[in-house]
Amino acid sequence: MATWSPMHSKPYTPVPYRPERIPAEEALRVAADLRVRMQQRRTVRAFSEEPVPEQLVLDAIAVAATAPSGAHQQPWTFVLVKDPVVRARIREAAEQEERLSYDGRLGEEWLSALLPLGTDMHKPHLTDAPYLLVVFEQRYFLDGDEQHKHYYVGESVGIAVGMLLTALHLSGLAALTHTPSPMRFLSEVLNRPRNEKAFAVIPIGYPAPDAVVPDLVRKGLDQVIVEV
Fold first, then answer.
1. Reported pTM
2. Total structural domains in the chain?
């Protein structure tokens, strides 16, 4: 049986779409509740080693995989890293890159922007959290030795990661979007094909009992919405 690929084209075939309409009163309640719950989402850097049901993570990945994508090509790969040896290799390589960055590669302006976050070159979350998810973007599709273009790859994968973080938070889990730069080492450690490029490293778990987060304030709605 042939596997799905972007090259298995077929004519436009519309099918009915009739989602259940939520009554306005209930919809307003759901929206208000979601707004409150998502306001509580925070990036966490201190994770508990307490076990997490793997199905929670798999379901969140499944949610992410429903994201819209350019030409419906779904240009993403989610690598769930559980092996402690592999995770230790990732942490070692990431901290080596971060050390170079914090020692001058980032530049003063970038370091100044990071100051309120309290970050440094040490990345214990990469080995402390019970799960480590590495998201790769598929820059193009490989069909044997031939490669074919994917469209709006960064936008598509970015939307998927946003949906992933939302699903994780609503399931009671904490996460961190870590983007060590450069990230080429991830393709080598995880033996990914040449068409894939690391997009983000996401530790997943419960916050540590003594976890703290920066005292930050999000922009108000009036600062992010323009009505015309």
1. 0.93
2. 1
